[in-house]
Amino acid sequence: MASVTLQNLRKRFKNQEVLRGIDLQIRDGEFLVLVGPSGCGKSTLLRMIAGLDSTSEGCIKIGERNVSHVTPAQREIAMVFQSYALYPHMTVWDNMAFGLKMAGIPKEEQVLRIQQAVDILQLHPYIHRKPAELSGGQRQRVAIGRAIVRQPEVFLFDEPLSNLDAKLRDQMRVQLMELHQRLGTTMIYVTHDQKEAMTMADRIVVMRQGVIEQMGTPLELYERPANRFVAGFIGSPTMNFVPVKMKHQNNGESVVTLPWSQDIRLGTWSASVNKDERLELGIRPQGVLLDDSSPYRMQVDVTEPLGNMVYVHGRINGVRLVVETQKAPNPGSQVGIHLNDAMCHLFDGEGQCLRQAMEHIHAA
Amino acid sequence: MIRHIKPLAFYMGLVLVLLFFLLPILWMIGTAFTPSGEYISNSLSLLPEHPTMEHFRALWKDGFPERLANTIVVAVGATFLALVFGFLASYALVRFDFPRYLDHSFLLLVLMIKMMPPIVVAIPLFQLLKGIGMLDSSLGLILVYQVYTLPFCIWMLLSFVREVPLSLEEAACLDGTNLPKRLLYIVLPLCAPGLAATFIFTLIMAWNEFLFALLYLSTPSHFTLPLYVSNFITENETYWGQLMGIGLLSSLPMLFMAGYVQRYLLRGFTMQMK
Amino acid sequence: MLFRSRLQLISLMLPATLLLAVLTLYPISQILINAFSYVDYAGAERQFVGLDNFAELIDDWFFIGAVENTLVFSVMASFVQVGLGLLLAVLFDREFPVKRFALPIVIYPMMLSTLVCSAIWRAWYHYDFGFLNNALVSLGLSPVEWLFDPSLALFSVMLVDVWQWTPMSFLIILAGLQSVPADIKDAALTDGASGWRRFRYITLPLVMPQILLALLLRSIDTFKLFDKVYALTGGGPGNSTSTLSLFIYKQGFKFFNLGLASAGALMMLLIACLLSAVYAWRYVGAKS
Hints:
The complex is a heterotrimer.
Chain A: E1 4-13, E2 16-26, E3 31-35, H1 42-50, E4 57-62, E5 65-66, E6 77-80, H2 92-102, H3 107-121, H4 136-148, E7 154-158, H5 166-183, E8 186-191, H6 194-200, E9 203-208, E10 211-216, H7 218-223, H8 228-233, E11 240-250, E12 253-257, E13 263-265, E14 278-283, E15 288-290, E16 297-305, E17 310-316, E18 319-325, E19 334-339, E20 344-347, E21 353-355
Parallel strand pairs in A: 3-8, 3-9, 6-7, 7-8
Antiparallel strand pairs in A: 1-2, 1-4, 4-5, 9-10, 11-12, 11-14, 12-13, 14-20, 15-19, 16-17, 16-19, 17-18, 20-21
Chain B: H1 2-32, H2 54-62, H3 64-95, H4 100-115, H5 118-131, H6 138-162, H7 166-174, H8 179-190, H9 192-207, H10 211-216, H11 225-229, H12 240-260, H13 262-272
Helix pairs in contact in B: 1-12, 2-12, 3-6, 3-9, 4-6, 6-9, 6-13, 7-8, 9-13
Chain C: H1 6-35, E1 37-40, E2 45-48, H2 52-59, H3 61-92, H4 99-111, H5 114-124, H6 131-138, H7 153-178, H8 182-190, H9 195-223, H10 227-232, H11 244-254, H12 258-287
Antiparallel strand pairs in C: 1-2
Helix pairs in contact in C: 1-12, 2-12, 3-7, 3-9, 4-7, 7-9, 11-12
C-alpha cells in the first residue's frame, strides 16, 4: 500500500495541453474518484499514473518512489479497463495467471493468489471459460480479479462500470466498495458519473479542461462548491441557476433581485459587488418550495414522480426550474414558489462562488 | 406457377455453372488415369476405358518426389518469410503513430509493388541473384518470391492487426510484458485466423509461381512443380497422362488446406475491405 | 509508453522495408538506367543513347500490338470474371442441398498451377481431338481453330483465365454478400422490395466495395498476364496474343536486348503506376 503524489503534472499532445499542472496528494488507502465531463483529462491522468501515457512535465511518486520514467509493470499498480481488456484467447484462470507468470512468480504462489481472488469474487464456476462465454458482469469481475492477484500498491479504475446496465452497475458499485474496505489498498477511480463519485469516494477530484476545479469529500463538494461548474456537476438533479441583479449591499445585508422582480436577502459575505452587477444564484431543487400563498407563480411543464418524491419541472419568467416536492401538481397548472434564502449559493460573472448556502437538505 | 419455375431456373443455372468449372477438372482426373494409347479419340467421355496407374509410376521414377520437395521448401519458405516480416511490418504500421504521409506512402509503395508486373524487375533480379550466387537455388527463389508475397501479406494482415484492441496490449503491458512477449502471447494468437487465411493464399501463390522459377532455375533437379510440368510438353509429344498426374497431385494439398480453412478464407476477404 | 521508443517500431518495419527496397528499388533503378542505354550483354558494357529505345518501341509493331492485347485482355477478362463471380455469389448466397460439395468444386481451378490449367485447355482446344470440337461436331456444327485463328486466339486465352480466376471474384463477392446483415434483407422485404429490385437497390450497393476490390485485384493480375500466353500460344499466331510481359520476356531473355526490354518494362511500370495512382486515390482518399 502506498500514497500517490502528483507534482505539477503536465501532458501535451502535439501542441495541445490536455493536463495543465496537476498537483495532488492521494493518501495511503484512500478511495479517490476523478470525475469530470469527457475530455477533461481525467482518463489521461489515470493513464499517466499507470505509465501508459508518458508525462510531458512534472513528477509522479508512488510511496516515496519517483516512477515518472518507470515502465508500467514496475510501478506496482493494477488497472481495470473500461472495456475490461480480458485476453479473449485465454480462460478466466489464465487471464489472471498471465501477469503473475510474466512477473516470474512461483507456480504455488500463483495458484494461491488466484484461488483467493476467485473466492472473493465468486468466480468458481467460470475459471475454465473464456471471456466470450461470460456475461458483462462476470467479465467485470474477472477484470477485477486480474487486478487483485497482482497485489498492487495502487488500483486504477478507468470507468469500469460504464458498460454495465443500470441494475448491475449498482450491485458492482457496492461490491467495489466492499472490496476497498477488505483490501484497504489505495484506489484511484475515473468516472464521468457524479453519482458513482458521490457514493464511492473518500475524496473527489473534479476536473475540467485539464485543471482541478475542486477537491474534497463528497459532502464538501455538495455543500460548498467552489464555483458554478462544480455546483452544476455535483448533485442530481442539477442545481437550478437563476440570473439575478445586485440591488444593494450594505453592512450586514445584501439584497439581489430575481428575474421575476422578487428581492431576496442573502446576508453578508466578504467580496464586494457593485450595484446592478449581474450575478447567478444557485439553488438545489430541495431549496425551492411550493407555496400557494406566494404571488410568484411558476408554470408547471412536466412532473417526474419517483415514488417517495416528485420532481416538478417548470418555468417562471423564462427561467427553467426543478423543484423537489411531495405532492405532484397538474402539468399546465400554475403554482406559487418560494426560494429558501438560507439554501442559496451566489456566483459572480466568472462563476466563482461568492456565498455558500447555510443550510442543506441532502438528497436521499 | 412462377414459384415452381424459379427454383428450376436456379438449379439449371447452378448445374450449368458447376459443369463449366467441373468438366475440365474431371477431364484432368480422367486423363491422369488414361493409358497413353487412348488419348486420341473423338468421344465425349471424360473417363478412361481402361484406367491405369502407369503415369503415376512413371512420375515417381522420374523424380516427382524430388520436385515436390523443392516446391514445398520454396513455397513454405517464401510464405513463412513473408508472414513473419509482413506481420511485424503491419503491426508497426497499425500501432505506430507515423506521420500520415509516411503511413500512406508505405501503403502506396506496397500497392505499387503489387501492381508491378514481375517481368519488369526480372532482368535486374537475375543479375542480383547472379551477383550474390543464389541463382538456381531454392533460397534465391524464396528471396525473389517476396516481390509477390510480402506486399500481399502486409496488405492482408493490416486489417487483422487493426482488429486487436489497444487496451488488450495495454493490459499486457501492465502485466509486465515487453514488446516481443506481447507480440508472441497476445497479438499473434489474436491474429491467428488472419494469419491462417493469409498463409493459405500466400502458399497458393508461391506454390504455383512460374515466371521466376522459369527464369532463375536451370538445373532440372532444382525445378519446382510448375516448371517440372513443362518437361512433359516437348516438340514432338505431349505426355498428357503425366502432365495431368502432376496437376492432380500438386493441387490436392492446396485444396485440402483451402477446405480446412474455408471459413477463414471468406473472413479474410471481408476483412480486407475495412 | 507501450513502446520504449519510436526506434522499436521502426525496427519492426525494417526487415520488410529493406527486403522490398532491395527487390524493387534496386531493379527499378537498373531499369531506369538501361532504358536509356544500349547494353552490350556479352561485353557487359553500357552506352547512353537517350530516347532511342523508346523511339524504337513506338515504331515497333510488335510492341504496339502487345500493348493493345494487354489492355483488351485486362479490361475484358476482369469484367467478365467479376460479372460471372457476382452471378455465382448470388447463387451461392442461399442454402441448397449440395452446397458443401459445390463450393470446393467451384474454387478448385484457383488451386491449380497455371501451367496445368493451360495444359488442360490446350488439350480441349485441340482441333482434331479436343473436347470442345468433339462436342461441336457431335452437335452437328463445324469445328473451330481455337488457338490458331488470329481473331479468336486472344479470347480462347481469356476463357482459360476466366475459368481459373472467376473463383477469386466469386469468393470476394460471396464474402461481401454474407456480411450483409440479415435485418437489412428483412427490412428490404418489409419495404416490399423483392427479386430483381431488391438485388438492384439493396444488395448491389452493399457489395459494391467487394465488387470493386475484385475488379482491382483481377485487373492487376490480368495486366501482368504471362504464363498462360507462354504455355498456350507463345504469343501467336503471328502477334495476336502477345502481351507486354511476353514482349519484355522475349526481348530480355531470348534476344538479350536489355535496353529495349528495360524501356518496355519502364513503360509497363508507368502504366501500372498510373493505374495504382487511380486506385490509391480512390482507396486512400476515401479512407482519410
